[in-house]
Design a protein that fits this description.
The complex is a heterodimer of chains A (about 250) and B (about 120).
Chain A: H1 3-27, E1 52-62, E2 71-81, E3 86-96, E4 103-114, E5 124-134, E6 140-152, E7 155-167, E8 174-185, E9 192-199, E10 204-215, E11 221-231, E12 239-248
Antiparallel strand pairs in A: 1-2, 1-12, 2-3, 3-4, 4-5, 5-6, 6-7, 7-8, 8-9, 9-10, 10-11, 11-12
Chain B: H1 3-26, E1 36-42, E2 45-47, E3 50-53, E4 59-65, E5 71-75, E6 80-84, E7 89-94, E8 100-106, E9 114-119
Parallel strand pairs in B: 1-4, 3-9
Antiparallel strand pairs in B: 1-2, 4-7, 5-6, 5-8, 8-9
Classes of the chains: A mainly beta (about 250), B alpha+beta (about 120).
């Protein structure tokens, strides 16, 4: 097999894989899960040695169904690079329902692995491993996500394809797939507009996002993202607002 | 879709993923002709601070950090950032690029560690 035919076959396999995953993520339906919202963030596949960060994410959703409206979810995390290829982060997620106080919903340990050097191949590759445990119920999930990113001129496309196994005595043990994607214009460092898409067992959403980076003293950086996700099915909330702030030091 | 069907679908997808990654790695031989440029970081300065690379071609930079402290090769124009721990080396791939000048700097010492890539 020649190099060009291997390359063509590889691209064909990858395209088939991505399309299949997308179709599955977009076709699997199940019973609704109260307060579930699959909008998260789109991960790039890069790790920097010595990097440490504090992260705050806020998600607020509204819906014409009062049970799914006015729900605030916040997630705080601390992460650090373990070596030049692996980054680990611990999260706590809080959930606030209407008329209630914010309660701790879950804990999560996450590890990102950079598989290739940026720009080395046609796309950059990484892997994300997540282990999440609900605080008040016997529900846990382990997820593995393939991270891909590619640059076309001033545009960057990033795709996350994941499979997760949910288990515990308060949930049906099962595998699920999910995906998210982002198409972003590298307009300038402090402001990059883009479009995001999210799909999982329940969620189908799409919407605009703004991201940017602000430099502080020495090697301190503030990375921010703000997005609005509109539903593509009747389960996804009408509006999901998301804000992310990362302080790298 | 039943649970068993879903599980077997996931396993098949995983196998395709592995196949794709393995075959992708097989194409690594295509990188063998990538030109290599070497840069040194000494006393928080880049040597050379300016260098020329060909337009339309991917280039591999090997950056040796001769200082004891870390440095970060950073460039928004090149869309690259790479932390290089003290007394180690890092690899950065850039390009293919259009002709022009692309500045870079060392984020840990931005006032002194500056340079640019000239693409022609």
């Amino acid at each position: 097999m020649t190099r060009s035919s291997i390359g063509a076959y590889t691209r064909g396999v990858q395209l088939t894989f991505v399309l299949t995953w997308t179709l599955i993520a977009a076709s699997v339906q199940a019973d609704n899960l109260l307060y579930h919202n699959g909008v998260g963030r789109v991960y790039d596949p890069y790790v920097q040695p010595l990097e440490r960060e504090l992260e705050l994410r806020t998600y607020y959703q509204t819906d014409d169904d009062s049970l799914e409206s006015d729900i605030l979810r916040q997630r705080v995390g601390f992460g650090a690079a373990i070596n030049e290829r692996v980054f680990a982060e611990l999260y706590l997620t809080g959930l606030k329902l209407p008329g209630s106080a914010m309660l701790l919903e879950s804990y999560e340990l996450e590890s990102k692995i950079q598989l290739t050097e940026q720009g080395e191949y046609a796309a950059d590759w990484g892997l994300l491993l997540e282990l999440e445990r609900e605080r008040s119920e016997s529900i846990a999930e382990f997820a593995t996500t393939l991270l891909m990113s590619r640059q076309w001129g001033n545009w960057v496309g990033t795709l996350n394809l994941g499979v997760e196994y949910e288990f515990g005595s308060n949930i049906r043990n099962e595998f699920d797939t999910f995906m998210s994607a982002q198409w972003r214009l590298r307009y300038r460092e402090s402001l990059e507009p883009g479009l995001e898409f999210y799909a999982d067992e329940f969620t189908r959403g799409i919407g605009p996002v703004l991201t940017g980076l602000v430099r502080g003293a020495e090697n301190q950086k503030w990375h921010w993202e703000a997005g609005l996700v509109y539903p593509l099915n009747h389960i996804t909330p009408d509006y999901t607002y998301r804000v992310l702030l990362e302080y790298e030091f | 879709m039943t649970i068993s069907t879903h599980i077997s679908s996931s396993i098949r997808l995983g196998a395709r993923l592995l196949t794709g990654v393995v075959l992708y790695c097989m194409t690594m031989g295509a990188q063998a002709q990538t030109p290599v440029f070497e840069i040194e970081i000494r006393e928080h300065l880049f040597y050379p601070s300016e260098f020329k690379i060909p337009a339309g071609q991917k280039v591999k930079l090997i950056i040796y950090n001769r200082d004891a402290t870390p440095e970060e090769f950073e460039s928004y124009e090149l869309n690259r950032e790479k932390v290089i721990v003290g007394n180690t080396q890092g690899i950065v791939f850039i390009g293919p690029l259009k002709p022009g000048e692309y500045p870079f700097f060392g984020e840990f010492n931005p006032k002194t560690a500056q340079g640019k890539v000239i693409v022609e």
